[in-house]
Amino acid sequence: MNLILKNEIKKDIESVNKTLSLIMRPKCNLTNDVYKQVIGSGKRLRPLIVLYTALALGYKDINAALRVGSIVELIHTASLLHDDIIDEALTRRGNPTAHKVFGTKSAVLGGDYLYSLAFNEVLSFDARIADTISKAAYLLTEGELQELENAFNPSLSEDDYYDIIYKKTSVLIEASSISGAVLGDDKYIEAFKEYGKNLGFAFQIKDDCLDYDSDIETLGKDVGSDLKEGKITLPVLYAQNNDNNLSGMIKAYFDKQDDLLYEKIDRSVKENGVATAIKKAEEFSEKAKCAIEFLPKSKYKKYLTAIADYSIERKR
Question: Is the pTM of this model over 0.85?
Answer without folding.
Answer: yes
